[in-house]
Each structure stands twice: as C-alpha cells, then as structure tokens.
Backbone:
C-alpha cells in the first residue's frame, strides 16, 4: 500500500516548567520523583534533512530519580504511558501547529513531578487507501475475528521473529468463555468520516472490555489473568492516521498507524491507543499495538466486518473446469506408489512438536476411500503411529482448482490435513517455498475448518487464513476446495468461500506445488491428546485437480 506524504517538523522551542517540587518527601515507601529531565528530537534529522525524515515523528526521552512510569500528554488529544521514559509520537494535524507536551513522572504512592515542552510541527500525511478501507468512505463497523486463528496474539516488538505473534496465538473462539465472549467477541468498533472528512471512532463495548492482566488492577480486577471489566472509556473519539516508525519490513505492514485520541482502545486494552495496520481489505484488518507497560512486546489483533467474527461469504464462480488429474481410490488395496510417496519417521516433530511416528502401514485404500489412521501404539520410540503421503516429483502443478471430498477423524489431539508445498521446498526451505493448507482440522476444536497460507512475513501463528464452522465434519463427507490463480486464492467448504487471498507476482504462489495428506497427533496446533485415544481415521473419497 502506498503512502503519500510530505512532513516537515521543527522543534522551535523547548521550555520546561516544574509543576511539582523536586524535593523528596519520604513517608514510608512514598518518594516523589526528582531531577526530571525531558528531551525531544526530530526523527531522522540530518544536515541534509533539518526537518526530519518526513515521518512527522518526534522521539522523546524522559528520566527522573525515583520514577516508576512516565506519562506523555502530547497536547493533540493523545497520551501514553511509558515505563522506560522512551517513546516516539507522530503529530498528524495538517499544517503548522504548536503543541504543549506535558511529561508526568510518577513514583511510589501516586506522587508525581511534571514538566512541559513546546514543539512546533508541520505535517501533511495522507493515506487515502487505508482511510477508504477503514471507513468504507462514510462509516464501517469492525468486530474481533473470533473464528480466525491468531485473532489475538503476542510476540516481540523487535529482533528475531518480531513480525509475528510467536509467543502466543489464540485458537478460533478460544476466548469464548461465558465471561469473555460477551465482552470481547461482541465489541463494535465503528470508523466514520465527519463533515470535514476527519475520522471519528466509536467504541461500543456493551458495558465491559477485555483487559490485559497487567491493567486489570486499574479497573477493579484482581490482577490474576485477563478479565472482562467495567470500562467507561467508550463512545466517540477523534482518530487520525500517521506513518509507521516501527521498522517492520514493507511486506509485513501497510506503513500506516491508527491513532485514537483520549486513550481509546480497540477491544483488547493494553494501555496504548496507536495501532499499526499490517493488512487491510474491504472486510478484514490485522493490526499490531505496543503495550504501554512493556515496549518489548507487540500484541496482534484481527478484525472483520461481520458480526461474530466471520468473513462474509463470497459467491464462487470457478475459472477452471477441465479435469486434469484425479485420484478416486476405487480400487481397494495399497496406496499407488507411482503417485504417492510415504514420508517415514518423526523428523523432530515436523517443526510442530508432533507426537506421531509416520509409517507405511497406516494408509490403505478400502471401501472406495483412502483411509489414513492414527493409532495409539508404541512405534519406534513414539506413542502414536500414522501416515503422511505426498505427490512430490510424481504430480506437481501450477494453478487450478483442487477438490477433496473427505470425512475427518474426531478426538482431542487429532490433526488431519490436506495441503500443498512448493516444489522448490528442498532448495529454499519454509516458509519461503509457500504453503497452501486446503483443509486443517483439530479434534480439540470439533467442526471448525481452517484454510491457511504460509509465506514470508505471514507464517506460523501469523499465517494468512480464516476458519469456518462446518457441523458434522467427522460424521459425513464434505468437499474442501482451493481455487488458485495468478490473481487470487480462494478457500471453500461445500462451495462456500470463507477466505480470499489476492495473489501477486512477488508471492511464492506462482510455481509448481505438490499435494500432502496426513493425520498428525498433538503438537503446537493439534494440542493436548486425549489420554483415552485409541485410533481414528481420515477418509478421502477423491481428490481432483481442474485447470483451464
């Protein structure tokens, strides 16, 4: 997404006023912060660019003896709390404006000292594409994407893995406990344009907000875990867009940040009101926010425009009607070795801490179906056996419609999948090769089907995908489909589209891929295995590939 902006910023004056005494008053453990100092520096300022790098951002640094936190009140309706005293803020009102920035250093017992500085800022930032998608051109309401994996997650804000929620990623509907679903999955977040074409944000939390554990004490919680708590900071807020200064790579962000004035929040309260837009379409939005109490972390949220967190179904019209390859499994007996390769072993958990050992004995064709069975049995030092078969080097193709009619195993810990990897996997590795998960299911989330893409910048817990509820996936056969073209990749169940990806020439999805079928046990996605598990099977009636 292209950002079009020109920003010139100059700090013309730096005037400090002390509103509290710098003397220490010791009453038990209560100590007033002293020797408060504040500095402000234009980001990217050089001799060639005396007004900064065009981001409109100013870096602030505050320090004081005996200070626990620093609150920055920027004078433009925005404020934030920093434990370290280091922060960067973008001033976004177009034109030349003066802002009085107040820094409050808080010590023990709630005592504080403060100082002010005046900055003069010229800004002219514009991202009309994000503005249009966010507001729909007039008004649009967003909801937490409860049905999608990683709709809530957390990872590092910088360093290795800082583009994804590698520490934790919520499973679909994971927060659907009686006390949480009513305050997290039903929040309404509406972005509108007023008569002056400025953004107005309305937050309706239906009375309570899902609050991060670090902040529950501020709202009457017990500080033991994330909680739904009474939260009055709702209603209308002014909002603005600013350029990102996070350092995320271009393919992992739009480069635009949503700023909500007055301490407003987007559904999950983490003490910050600035949300970097990682990806946005007419119906989906992924954001990243740095919590106010811990700048080393980044929280991730996914939103959709459909109540309940599911994307609106898309009418499906196939581009591919010529059947070019079919496995109908009509002849009972062993799997055809001229088509299918067995991958044997555990291979270090296959990168997912999986618990099964793959053999050639757990896949067979019977009663007109390919049957892959996971069993609880000691096998080469592992407690479970199963099979994983691929068409690598035997059948590989680029673009088309892939259909698989299957009935899935049930039972906590089962993880069946119908998926594809790029044919250059051995040369470039994962996720560079690209991965297309036509169907994934886990027994710990019965009747939830996942369709997902993994590629650089969007892999693992930050993968690009959605989920859909399909009743009876273990009782009857359903048709799982991917339609893959140079322009798009669609995921469907029984003809209903539930996720869409806009393919592009720079993606890894423009080359040959091969098909993989397997039933895993446990692991990072399969989850805890039922101690009473004995054996369960995935049955596949057919797999078909259509092209032009």
Residues:
């Amino acid at each position: 997404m292209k950002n079009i902006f020109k920003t010139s910023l100059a700090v013309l004056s730096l005037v400090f006023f002390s509103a509290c005494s710098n003397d220490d008053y010791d009453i038990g453990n209560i100590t007033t912060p002293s020797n408060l100092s504040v500095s402000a520096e234009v980001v990217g300022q050089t001799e060639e660019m005396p007004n900064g790098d065009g981001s409109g951002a100013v870096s602030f640094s505050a320090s004081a003896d005996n200070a626990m936190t620093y609150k920055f009140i920027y004078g433009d309706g925005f404020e934030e709390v920093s434990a370290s005293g280091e922060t960067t803020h973008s001033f976004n009102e177009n034109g030349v404006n003066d802002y009085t920035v107040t820094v409050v250093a808080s010590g023990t017992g709630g005592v504080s000292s403060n100082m002010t500085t005046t900055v003069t800022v010229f800004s002219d930032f514009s991202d009309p594409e994000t503005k249009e998608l966010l507001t729909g051109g007039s008004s649009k309401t967003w909801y937490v994407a409860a049905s999608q994996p990683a709709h809530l997650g957390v990872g590092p804000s910088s360093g290795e893995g800082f583009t994804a929620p590698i520490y934790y990623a919520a499973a679909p509907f994971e927060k659907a406990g009686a006390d949480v679903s009513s305050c997290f999955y039903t929040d309404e977040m509406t972005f509108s344009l007023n008569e002056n074409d400025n953004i107005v944000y309305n937050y309706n939390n239906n009375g309570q907000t899902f609050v991060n554990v670090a902040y529950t004490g501020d709202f009457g919680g017990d500080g033991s875990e994330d909680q739904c708590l009474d939260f009055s900071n709702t209603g209308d807020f002014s909002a603005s867009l600013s350029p990102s200064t996070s350092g995320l790579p271009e393919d992992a962000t739009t480069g635009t940040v949503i700023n909500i004035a007055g301490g407003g929040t987007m559904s999950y309260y983490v003490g910050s009101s600035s949300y970097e837009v990682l990806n946005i379409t007419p119906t989906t939005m992924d954001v990243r926010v740095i919590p106010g109490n811990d700048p080393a972390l980044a929280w991730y949220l996914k939103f959709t425009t459909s109540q309940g967190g599911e994307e609106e179904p898309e009418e499906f019209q196939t581009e591919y009607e010529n059947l070019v390859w079919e496995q109908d499994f009509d002849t009972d007996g062993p799997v055809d070795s001229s088509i299918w390769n067995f991958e044997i072993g555990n291979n270090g958990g296959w990168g997912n801490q999986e618990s099964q050992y793959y053999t050639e004995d757990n896949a067979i064709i019977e009663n007109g179906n390919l049957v892959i069975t996971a069993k609880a049995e000691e096998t080469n030092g592992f407690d479970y056996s199963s099979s994983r078969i691929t068409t690598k080097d035997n059948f590989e193709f680029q673009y088309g419609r892939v259909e698989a009619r299957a009935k899935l195993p049930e039972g906590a810990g089962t993880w069946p999948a119908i998926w594809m990897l790029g044919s250059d996997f051995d040369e470039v590795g994962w996720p560079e090769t690209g991965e297309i998960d036509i169907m994934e299911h886990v027994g710990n989330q019965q009747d939830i089907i996942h369709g997902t893409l993994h590629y650089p910048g969007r892999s693992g817990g930050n993968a690009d995908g959605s989920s859909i509820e399909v009743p009876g996936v273990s009782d009857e056969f359903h048709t799982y489909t991917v339609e893959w073209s140079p322009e798009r990749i669609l995921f469907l169940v029984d003809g209903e589209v539930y996720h869409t990806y806009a393919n592009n020439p720079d993606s890894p999805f423009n080359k040959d891929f091969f098909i993989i079928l397997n039933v895993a046990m446990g692991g990072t996605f399969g989850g805890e295995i039922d101690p009473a598990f004995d054996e369960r099977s995935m049955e596949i009636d057919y797999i078909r590939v259509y092209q032009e």
Residues 1-27 have pLDDT under 50 and may be disordered. DSSP finds four helices and 41 strands in the chain. The first strand starts at residue 4 and ends at 5.
